[in-house]
Amino acid sequence: MTETSVAKNLLRDLAPQVLGVIARKHGDFAAAEDAVQEALIAASVQWPAAGIPANPKGWLYQVAIRKLTDYARSEAARRKREENAAAEMFRGDPFVPPRDSEIGIDEDDTLVLLFMCCHPALTSSSAIALTLRALGGLTTAEIGSAFLVPEATMAQRISRAKLNIKSSNIPFSMPTDAEKAGRLSAVLHVLYLIFNEGYTTSNGSELNRPDLSNEAIRLTRSVRQLLPGNAEVAGLLALMLLTDARRTARIGEFGELIPLDEQNRELWDRKLIAEGIAIVSGALSSGAIGSYQIQAAIAAVHDEAGRVEDTDWSQIATLYGLLERESDNSMVSLNKAIAVAMVSGPMAGLELIDKLDSDPRIGGHYRLDAVRGHLFEKAGDHAGAVKHYRAAAERTRSAPERDYLQARAARLTP
Amino acid sequence: MKYILMMNTPRGTGDYEINNWSPEDFKNHIAFLHRYNSELKEAGEWVGAEGLAPPSEARLVRARKDGTPATDGVFPESKEFLAGYWIIDVDSPERAYELAAKASAAPGPGDTPLNMAIEVRPIMSGPLPTEG
Description:
Order of helices and strands of chain B: EHEEEEHE
Strand order of the largest sheet of chain B: 2-5-1-6
Number of helices of chain A: 21
Largest sheet of chain A: none
Helix content of chain A: over 70%
Largest interface: A-B, 38 and 23 residues
Strand content of chain B: 25-35%
Structural class of chain A: mainly alpha
Oligomer: heterodimer
Strand content of chain A: under 5%
Distance between the termini of chain B: 20 Å
Radius of gyration of chain A: 25 Å
Structural class of chain B: alpha+beta
Helix content of chain B: 10-25%
Number of strands of chain A: 0
Number of strands of chain B: 6
Shape of chain A: elongated
Radius of gyration of chain B: 18 Å
């Protein structure tokens, strides 16, 4: 690793700790967040050149506190028109970063920070942006480039999120026990969305674009360290690892989508799979069952099959049944129909899908047609398969998926 | 999710009709677009926007057999013409439609809303990990 990337990784680990303690002591989260961001930028310029300071946490803390003080002073100066007096006050202030023990870092601060950035009062797009900056230590420019929007737009989302926190009087404190479960699920949802975004924008390889899936995994790992006993946190981390393990196998040479049953399983990352399976097994044995754990368990069953024909579909069908009861999500019912088709034949799956037509949440969705295409193909009805593949290809919003569906239809056209 | 909002205006004589509006109406319209753009930026929904030169400046280009460009000076008949577009990043399709309706009601001559057609199209992205 180069000096620059060592400094960068260290900075990103320290960022939420330093912000947490300053936000708690200072009370003004928005101002603290700006100050820490400035300190990070200063460090990313100075550390690679001058070397990492002996106590990096104290360095960041000190610089951020100075930025805050500068800011408060210049505000006061503007109000009182005492610019000269204020400038005088800066002189001779020695720069002595405090030792870690003097800062009073509390692990809970990072958790509070996370609850704050993922507060349900924020829209998901602003919660995502704020989480990546405040907890992920990414710069606004990096977040903008990850989502392919201009830096100014991302800056605006972040400042609106902070304004929203301020105006909703969201305090910098741990949620009550009664609130905690709901607030944690909001946090996990934001992390899940960040992970998904990494996948949906994974076509093409833009330079300097941070990898959102890796970032989501990193953040979820740190949440797991803070809440080691929580089975849903473990479930989400396992789900991410077990999905990410297939990353290279999922996209072909030209950015085309390769579905699970056609992937070269040699390309799957065995290390990630082993880690994911160990985590989800531990979580499931703890007793409490949640939707991330079940999704992780499903991903694990797929990942355990060395060949596609070894897939234990009856176990997957059972797990989707459990998930259906847990989350009442029609996309889950569709996935269950696929598993049932694999166990009991395509007609059984098609029957279940027909029932979904009248569900307003999913009726008319292109995924119904995509799955019907597969099941008709399996049943040997090529004309029916082509019709549904094409109907799905016309409506999907994903370019690789459209190409895949069209190729599928073309293969069956005489 | 990202959308493109395409502002379709009547083709008219081959030039933008706005050029024949009174200076007052023209100014109102442009001021509206400025406000609209800054609102998009403030909301953190702005990705980009461009206005396009008038139809009279448009050329249809096709490759000849040897690959060199053949330009067609006469623009083919079409009732409507793309005048410009916005690319936005919003939380829901409803929000995209709301923003399109707002642009559609941009003021025209005599401050009357133009209610022009704004074509809203989702921009393609990759599929979700849970879908493959």
